[in-house]
Every structure is written in structure tokens, then in C-alpha cells.
Amino acid sequence: xxxxxxxxxxxxxxxxxxWTSQHELFYQNKVIDMARLNHENIAKFxxxxxxxxxxxxxxxxxxxxxxxxxxxxxxxxxxxxAQFSWLRRMKIAIGIAQSLRYLHTESRPPFAISxxxxxxxxxxxxxxxxxxxxxx
Length: 136
Known about the structure:
Layout: E1 7-11, H1 21-36, E2 45-52, E3 55-62, H2 69-74, E4 76-77, E5 80-81, H3 86-106, E6 121-122, E7 130-131
Antiparallel strand pairs: 1-3, 2-3, 4-5, 6-7
């Protein structure tokens, strides 16, 4: 964003004719849910886009420069999977646990998480994990 933070976004793509009132209600509820979350281990929700011409729906988040935990565990450097130190692994595990505690016990109403995967945990430069996709 101009003179602001780097952002990432989730584009909810559908042809306008296929976007039902149920889709719109789901989208609006997600925007409301995301706006009320405030935790250091949850991806920071910045804004949303709801345009009619051209039809688009987006959720905008603060960008995590180091990609996902999945990318760190899967992609190789010089033929070897990058290894985290135990200290870094513990920081990531504790951060994920804190985000789950926040979503399950501290937020009202609580969020039910159907699936937590390594590609839904983003890793910024300081390696403080940010849960993202788990809350859609």
C-alpha cells in the first residue's frame, strides 16, 4: 500500500451470477469476525473490498515476508530442507498454541477451527507465527 505496510489479500473469486445471497452473508460475517480479532499470533486484518463493477470480494491482511511454515518445511536450499533451531521451533509452537487458546477460549464467541495446516501459518521476519487461513 502506498506509504503503508505491505499487504497480502485473499480474493474470493466467483462470477457475479454465481455469487448467491448465502455467499454474501458468509463474506459479510467473515469481515465482521476478522475485524474483532486482535492477537499477536493471528494475521492482522486490515481491510476488505466489496466492489460491484467489476464484481470482487477481498480480505486484506498485513503481509508476512517469510512465507508459510509449510514452505519452510518443504522447500530446499541446496538440496536440503531448511532446519529450524529448537528455540525457533518452540517459539513457533508456542505462538500457534497461543493463537488457538485465543480463538477457542478468549474470543467471544469462540472460533471453531476445522483444520490447522502448516500452509495456514505465516512466518514474518521475527518468526512469530501468524495463523491465517484457519479462521475462514
